[in-house]
Amino acid sequence: MGNSFSVKPHKDKTTKKVTVVPPPKILGVGINGKVVECEHRATGEKYALKVLRDVPKARREIELHVAASGHAHIVAVLDVYENAYNDVQCLLVVMEKMEGGELFARIQERGGTAFTEREAAHIMRDICGAVAHLHSMNIAHRDIKPENLLYTEAGSRGQIKLTDFGFAKRTNESEPQGLATACFTPYYCAPEVLGSEKYDKSCDLWSIGVVMYILLCGYPPFFSAHGLPMSPGMKSRIKSGHYTFPSPEWDCVSQAAKDLITKLLKTDPAERYTIDQVMAHKWTQTLTRLPDTPLATAVNLEKTEWPEMQDEMEKTLASMRVDKEDIHIKSLAESKNRLLEKRKAAAKVDP
Q1: What pLDDT, on a 0 to 100 scale, did the predictor assign at position 290?
Q2: What's the CA gap between 141 and 183, in Å, rounded?
Q3: How many domains does the chain have?
Q4: Domain range holding 107?
Q5: Is residue 323 among the annotated active site residues?
Q6: CA-based max dimension of the chain
Q7: Nearest CA-CA partner of 323 in 170, 210, 179
Q8: pLDDT grade for 266, boundaries at 50, 70 and 90
Q9: Last residue of a domain, one of 95, 125, 157
Q10: 76 or 202, which is more confident?
Q11: Helix 117-136 crosses helix 255-264 at what angle (to 10 degrees)?
């Protein structure tokens, strides 16, 4: 027996029921809501169900995800419904269930099987294909990271797909001032996102460069020496683009791979490669001729305790990810700012 949601149709869709298996199996946590497992009543087929509070930001996320979901490497949205859940108006997004896990977890689970640069290039080509599709539609994803890169199924037949459009935004005339909201996840954010200046969809290319770097060696190009998700030193290194290709991990990696990473991790967005240039780069184009020697990726992912590192990052996201729609400005009467209190006190004694 399952708990069934009687739902009202979203737009022109026919009324249906979605059954959530109790207790709902949590598949993941997106920026704006949880993703749980659900089951089709008639067929027993399992899907992923994202439950979002019905607010403009959630509707924007769904609109952009639906628009992009026809691509082979973007998680498909199958249906969207409106429904009241616990007296809160919600949007229920039914998506294909990704059975194969996250990108880096997949590499760690290979055991003794070697992971090679050739395989890394195939993975990056698929990820870049998804981003090329988004950028052709003037959509910036703004949160490209391993946790949002999922496989359809376990084993060699699994296909990698991009998900979670909680930070996605249009970059065309609907955003004439460019993107300004400081949305980011530590390790993957571009230098311009850390600053106050406007930015555009090229921020996705920086994130691709970071993912590619980790994919080829097992640790990030920018990290905090103190174990924090973000430190002043790490922020400084990101803004200055200070990273290296240390030995021995990078000794067997091709020069073409290093060249592409260098083109992606340009601190000036105007100098950074576009997604079309990435797709045309010789590293992406000559997959079968790339080295088949084992990389240190899996070993280093294990050494750096990647799951624990991800947990630490997730704990800080509430304070580090900023979106103007979420900002609540206190009134002066509510504020407990010490400098303001001092000024109030001084004003009382002034004649």
Answers
A1: 86
A2: 10
A3: 2
A4: 101-326
A5: no
A6: 82
A7: 179
A8: very high
A9: 95
A10: 76
A11: 30
